[in-house]
Amino acid sequence: MVDAKETSSRRNLLARGLVLVGGAVGLAAARRDESAKAAPETKGTELRLYGRNFHLHAQSHVAGQVPAHGDRHSGYGELLDRPGGKVVGHFTAAHLTQQSPFASAASSLELHTFTLTAGTIHGLGAVARGAEGHFVVLGGTGRFTGARGSYVARQRARELGGDGTAEFHLTLAE
């Protein structure tokens, strides 16, 4: 036989458990709301740039050959507003070639600078040779002060058998 005191204790324990679960659910919902306020849905400004006369240079580099592991090299080219359009700036890059047993091709860590009339944009990322690269925007100057976002880069340097063109699709967060 169950006495009234034991039943009352079970009810109190059950009620406290439900209050605890309800509080946890409420707290999780509040945190989710705060996270949404702290990181609102990102709206972005799309910026497409096109390149011509893209070249790659290194002291030890042989034209047509992928730079070797550890090679440092630089790249540069003109930036256009559209393919065959007007020049809106220039591009420079510092590259460090890396080889990994986990990658199918030699890749390079690249630091990019887009020098435009309104300011500069700086980016960083890694690219497997012949592939498109995905980069993070580190910041900028002028109109691009405090810039953040990401971009995709397709570079076809003449020294690696390309036609000297490039495409950059930037998404800058507002």
Polypeptide structure, described:
The protein is of the alpha+beta class and 174 residues long. It folds into 2 domains: 41 residues; 130 residues, Beta Barrel (AOC barrel-like). 20% of the residues lie in helices and 46% in strands. It is built from 1 helix and 8 strands. Strands 1-2-3-4-5-6-7-8 form an 8-stranded antiparallel β-barrel. Strand 3 and strand 4 form a beta hairpin. The protein starts with a helix and ends with a strand. About 9% of the residues have low confidence.
Break the fold down into its secondary structure elements and pairings.
Layout: H1 4-38, E1 44-57, E2 72-80, E3 87-98, E4 107-116, E5 119-128, E6 133-140, E7 149-156, E8 165-173
Antiparallel strand pairs: 1-2, 1-8, 2-3, 3-4, 4-5, 5-6, 6-7, 7-8
Radius of gyration: 27 Å
Number of domains: 2
Strand line-up across the major sheet: 1-2-3-4-5-6-7-8
Write down how many β-strands occur, each being a DSSP E stretch of 2 or more residues. Answer: 8
How can the largest sheet be summarized? Answer: 8 strands, antiparallel, barrel
What is the name of the CATH superfamily of the largest domain?
Allene oxide cyclase-like
Helical coverage, percent range: 10-25%
Order of helices and strands: HEEEEEEEE
Distance between the termini: 69 Å
Strand content: over 45%
Number of helices: 1
- Give the CATH architecture of the largest domain: Beta Barrel
Ranges where pLDDT stays below 50 over 5 or more residues in a row are 17-25, 35-40
CATH topology of the largest domain: AOC barrel-like
Class from secondary-structure proportions:
alpha+beta
> Can you tell me the CATH class of the largest domain?
Mainly Beta
How would you sum up the global shape? globular
Mean pLDDT: 77
